[in-house]
Amino acid sequence: ETTSVALKETIGVPVGTTVFEDIALCDAMFFFGQNTGTNSPRFLHPLQEAAKRGVKIITFNPVREKGLESFINPQNPGQMLTGNATQISTQYHQVKVGGDIAVLTGIAKHVFAADDAAKAAGTKRVLDVDFIAQHTDGLDAFEALVRATSWQDIEAQSGLDRSAIEAAAQVYVEAERVIGVYGMGLTQHAHGFDNVAMFVNMLLLRGNIGREGAGICPVRGHSNVQGQRTVGIAEKPELVPLDKIAAQFGFEPPRDTGMNTVEVCEGLLAGKVKAFIGLGGNFVRAMPDHSVVQPAWHRMRLTVQIATKLNHSHLLNGEVAYLLPCLGRSEQDMQESGPQTVTMEDTFSHIHGSIGRRSPASEHLKSEIAIVAGLAKATLPRNPKVDWD
């Protein structure tokens, strides 16, 4: 998963460095490849407050995403009655698809030029030289690469004029505290790692990592994405604290490399994948080239779907198929010890508890946790360190 790998390698942690409170302290926010109104509408409320207090919000997106252009708060009667929307983005640049690295190179190029001018004038440096010296490595090579890249190439690859990129870069130069926000427009890409790394480089130039009101903020595509990394779910064993898991739970976890989505599809076509257990989701419809892979789905020996509501994947079965309805997060899970709580981790790395309030659709429904624990109890050797009940 691009963020977990790129951030871990560039800044040493696999998650974003901002917290919710940083939004109230920043001077500028740079958005790359993130459709706030469509994918994270609750984010619009703090963005609206930020825009009202003068935060400059600079957006780079191939599409005109309505939520990042303007916002009418549905909880504000005045705005609803008058249609008086709040402008969100100070600048909105429709970058060419795949042109993000070129834009970030252009911003860095402007930063270096502004720093040259500051040195010549004997004024305060634009680069945070103390931060760079203490916390970063490789500036000389990065600077040489940026300076050697021509504006002609940057314009051609980004689809933007030099003046537009420099206007955005000047906001970055003048801001004291900058938050960099990105979504799957950067990560779901052949150059996803480089996209994220380049964004980090931009923030490092002025020390916008590791302090209040500044940092990198990945907006995950799904709430599970952040949480699964925290608890150690990954197809790459190097991303998982296997030794700590072994010590904590008293078993030897597998250390072989697993499969990503594409490799699962290839395994289906080759007949190597024999069984599938899905914890929610609509895998068959979401996977790439489903018209090619779907016919191979029926050749699996076993398919198990654990779900809160029906979808297309549940109509496609292996030789033996189980569809296990489960409790939704909004439903009560009452056990002998009382109401049960599930946890979620948001894009700011905060872990929240969630307790269902609605009566279950059926008294026979079990929670996802109970189903997984039941499968483990029925199939795994007894482990005194893990009570599946």
Order of strands across the widest beta sheet? 5-2-1-6-7
Number of helices: 18
Helix content: 40-55%
CATH superfamily of the largest domain: Dimethylsulfoxide Reductase, domain 2
Shape: globular
Mean pLDDT: 91
The low-confidence parts are none
CATH topology of the largest domain: Dimethylsulfoxide Reductase, domain 2
Strand percentage lies at 5-15%
Give the number of domains: 2
How many strands?
14
Strand count, sense and barrel status of the largest sheet are:
5 strands, parallel
What distance separates the N and C termini?
32 Å
| CATH architect. name of the largest domain | 3-Layer(aba) Sandwich
Structure classification:
alpha/beta
Q: What's the alpha carbon Rg, rounded to whole Å?
A: 24 Å
In CATH, what is the class of the largest domain? Alpha Beta
Which structural traits does this protein have?
389 residues, alpha/beta, Dimethylsulfoxide Reductase, domain 2, Rossmann fold, 2 domains, five-stranded parallel sheet, three-stranded parallel sheet, 42% helix, globular
Concise account of the structure shown:
The chain has 389 residues and is α/β, with parallel strands linked by helices. It is 42% helix and 14% strand.
Which helices and strands appear, and what pairs or packs with what?
Elements: H1 2-11, E1 28-32, H2 36-39, H3 44-52, E2 56-60, H4 66-69, E3 70-71, H5 77-82, E4 86-87, E5 91-93, H6 100-121, H7 129-135, H8 139-148, H9 151-158, H10 162-174, E6 178-182, H11 184-187, H12 192-205, E7 215-218, H13 223-231, H14 242-249, H15 261-270, E8 275-279, H16 283-286, H17 290-297, E9 302-307, E10 320-325, E11 334-335, E12 338-339, E13 342-345, E14 351-354, H18 368-379
Parallel strand pairs: 1-2, 1-6, 2-5, 6-7, 8-9, 9-10
Antiparallel strand pairs: 3-4, 11-12, 13-14
Helix pairs in contact: 1-12, 6-9, 6-10, 6-12
